[in-house]
Input
Amino acid sequence: QVQLVESGGGLVQPGGSLRLSCAASGSIFSFDAMAWYRQAPGKEREWVATFTSGGSTIYADSVKGRFTISRDNAKNTVDLQINSLKPEDTAVYYCHVVRYPAVWGQGTLVTVSS
Output
């Protein structure tokens, strides 16, 4: 059974930064692609970034250049460094293991407001 626990969210002013972290447990291996998604109030969940099984990174156009996804296989964590935050980045952020499409954590709320 796979479990995902996100942390690091909070209230931040526009232009600020946060570092989100996801601790994964269970049958997760270094070859598993992992991703971050987000869901803004009243909107559908959207993909943000992926750390692929080959170690490359892919980003949604809306966050490219501002967000950085990284992974620590030894700790089984995947982080999301988010910089130059905008009000439209306000959302609950979720990490995700691509191989387990039905598994989601509780998410961590990021609120960008002055």
In short: Residues 2 and 38 are 20 Å apart (CA to CA). DSSP finds no helices and ten strands in the chain. The longest strand covers residues 18-25.
